[in-house]
């Protein structure tokens, strides 16, 4: 089975279109992630899928990458969509991206694949550029973590931060409790509730973490 065929199977079985994600990522960008990536003129999303995040981003240049061919149709006008693996960013020149974002991607990767993605991310980032990960936190969501048959690695905010640090990245933020594990529930999803959740010190049902790291200033990317 080719990468694109596997991606189609995955989207058909695990990641069907859901309007709740449009509301979620629009609110997360407006009330949280836009501040994390403040001043970024070029933002790259890896594993963009339905492009729910990147379509909501406000930046002069927006780029989406995914193995799934449907990304071409899912990308909004103005978003550059590329079909291919996240560890192959040859279409981008060195030092041309301000922030690399990935949501619910790393748990699908081996350590070797993740290393390759980090290497490519460092190459395309400008000095001091950021990687931003929103990921399931195994420590908080271990009961449901492997309901997804494509999950191959386990991460917490501690292990993900340590892995990044061991590769030379500078951790800026490691938030164990960021958002609930999934939008696949009967609970309502609204911008108002998401804004309240983000502002609250209490995070009931939290299962997703947020980890932000920057490349060392003056890093050549290689």
Topology (elements, then pairings):
Layout: H1 3-13, H2 19-36, E1 42-46, E2 61-66, H3 71-74, E3 79-83, E4 97-103, H4 111-124, E5 125-136, H5 138-141, H6 157-166, E6 170-180, H7 191-199, E7 206-214
Parallel strand pairs: 1-2, 1-4, 2-3, 4-5
Antiparallel strand pairs: 5-7, 6-7
Helix pairs in contact: 2-7
Write structural notes for this entry.
By secondary structure, the chain is an alpha/beta fold. The protein has a single domain (3-214), classed as 3-Layer(aba) Sandwich (Rossmann fold), CATH 3.40.50.150. Helix content is 32%, strand content 25%. The protein contains seven helices and seven strands, in the order ααββαββαβααβαβ. The chain has a seven-stranded mixed sheet with strand order 3-2-1-4-5-7-6. α4 links the parallel β4 (97-103) and β5. It starts with a helix and ends in an 8-residue tail after the last strand.
């Amino acid at each position: 089975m080719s990468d694109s065929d596997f991606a189609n199977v995955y989207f058909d079985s695990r990641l069907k279109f859901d309007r709740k994600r449009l509301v979620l990522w629009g609110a997360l960008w407006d009330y949280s992630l836009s501040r994390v990536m403040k001043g970024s003129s070029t933002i790259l999303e890896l594993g963009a899928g339905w492009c729910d995040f990147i379509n909501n981003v406000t930046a002069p240049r927006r780029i989406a990458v995914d193995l799934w061919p449907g990304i071409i149709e899912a990308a909004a006008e103005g978003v550059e969509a590329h079909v291919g693996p996240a560890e192959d960013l040859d279409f981008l020149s060195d030092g041309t991206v301000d922030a690399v974002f990935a949501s619910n991607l790393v748990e699908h990767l081996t350590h070797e694949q993740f290393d390759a993605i980090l290497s490519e991310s460092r190459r395309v980032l400008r000095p001091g550029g950021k990687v931003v990960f929103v990921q399931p936190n195994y420590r908080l969501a271990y009961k449901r973590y492997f309901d997804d048959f494509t999950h191959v690695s386990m991460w917490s905010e501690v292990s993900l931060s340590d892995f990044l640090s061991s590769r030379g990245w500078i951790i800026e933020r490691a938030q164990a409790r960021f958002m609930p594990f999934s939008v696949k529930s009967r609970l309502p999803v609204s911008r108002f509730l998401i804004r309240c959740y983000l502002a609250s010190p209490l995070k009931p049902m939290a299962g997703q973490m947020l980890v932000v790291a920057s490349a060392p200033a003056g890093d050549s990317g290689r």
